[in-house]
Design a protein that fits this description.
Blueprint: H1 6-16, H2 20-24, H3 37-69, H4 74-102, H5 110-136, H6 143-172, H7 175-182, H8 184-189
Helix pairs in contact: 1-3, 1-6, 3-4, 3-7, 4-5, 5-6
Length: 197
């Protein structure tokens, strides 16, 4: 099949936003939150755990972008996308476990922030696992059907990106975000442009 599939381009654009979820955890606040050792310790624990998962998500996004921009055969796109979604599912599950294991941050409503974030992160993990199953089931012999299937997946991904962003923004409000912004591992998990915040 010659010519670039516009659906692949759309999928690539949506997926490249996926890494934003974890990068949101990097915080962009430069103001100081005083000397709250407990909160700083919590932030370090979470940031250190997030960093390798952020890299995993970025690598999954890069793999999908490469496959779609190379105008690969549907079979190759399906295989790459399925593996990427599995990696993303694993990564979000690990981030949820890290936030859960760190306990509640030492701030007002810390327990609620923690619980809500873990629930959202686990939900995102489950959604990516479901997308992997959907990709696995796509018909690669029929280009039109395959394109339609990818279009449906791209739509779901856009919603997924937004819900994940909202969950992490709530976790990072106030002092939690400030403490996370100080951590070297959170800074290095973000992209160069995001790190300037």
């Amino acid at each position: 099949m010659e010519g670039t599939n516009p659906v692949n381009k759309k999928l690539t654009a949506v997926l490249s936003g996926g890494a934003v979820l974890v990068l949101a955890l990097s915080g962009c606040s430069s103001s100081d939150n005083g000397n709250n050792d407990k909160l700083n310790s919590w932030a370090k624990q979470v940031c250190d755990a997030v960093q390798p998962q952020a890299k995993k998500i970025e690598a999954a996004n890069a793999a999908i972008q490469k496959e779609t921009s190379d105008n690969s055969a549907p079979d190759a796109v399906r295989k790459t996308d399925a593996q990427a979604f599995q990696d993303m599912s694993d990564a979000y599950k690990a981030i949820g476990a890290a936030v859960d294991g760190a306990g509640a941050p030492d701030v007002t409503d810390g327990k609620k922030k923690q619980t809500d974030a873990v629930k959202e992160l686990n939900g995102i993990s489950a959604s990516y696992a479901a997308l992997k199953k959907q990709v696995d089931g796509l018909d690669t012999k029929d280009q039109a059907k395959f394109a339609d299937g990818l279009k449906g997946i791209a739509t779901q991904l856009a919603k997924l990106s937004q819900s994940g962003n909202d969950a992490l923004k709530k976790l990072e409000e106030g002092d939690v975000g400030k403490a996370m912004a100080k951590q070297a591992s959170c800074k290095s998990a973000s992209s160069p442009s995001a790190a300037q915040g």
